[in-house]
Amino acid sequence: MRAIWAGILTATLMLGATGIAGATVYTSTTDLDRILFGTGKVSWQQEMPGDFTMPYDTVNSAKLTIYSNFVNGGNDYVQVESNFVGTLKNDTGWVWFWNPMESTKFDVSSSISSPWEQGQPLDVSLFYNESSCLDFLYLDKSVLCLNYNNQTAPVPEPGTMLLMGVGLAGIAVYGKRRRNEA
Ligand SMILES: [Ca+2]
Ligand SMILES: [Ca+2]
Ligand SMILES: [Ca+2]
């Protein structure tokens, strides 16, 4: 009898304690497509997976790639969730009419931290400085690649709650019997 109660209780606690975990890869693209002159700030939101929340989910890696060209000076700073993550790579194209897009990859994993609400986007800002004569930069798009362990918040189901109740009652009865026997 004792073993049956212990088995039910263990199974119940295991069901209630954890959801299903697994590494998930998610990507989102934000089209920016703009020419920036002088100095200033551009902000945008990068979509995050709809089932991502913190606590519960954990980030394995998070890379944000920004595509741009005609970038000069190494003074164009990228901020993610209020953290500076680096500068845009200077443009290496030298032919005006043939200028391939440059990509700069930023590690933004430390910018994604608890608490993170469901549906909350990633806030990104670019502080640009293209202030020399006739200077500008072209901002094309940003792409997020997020690898995370998706875990669901434990939601006890009515059946589980009932089992747990029965299990606890069993322990109480068992304990009382032992005391009475002693
Ligand atoms: Ca989740
Ligand atoms: Ca430039
Ligand atoms: Ca610059």
From TrEMBL:
Keywords assigned by UniProt, alphabetized: Signal
Keyword match Signal: yes
NCBIfam families in the cross-refs: PEP_CTERM (TIGR02595)
Signal peptide: 1-23
Organism: Geomonas paludis
Protein name: PEP-CTERM sorting domain-containing protein
Domain Ice-binding protein C-terminal: residue ranges: 154-178
Pfam family, one: PEP-CTERM
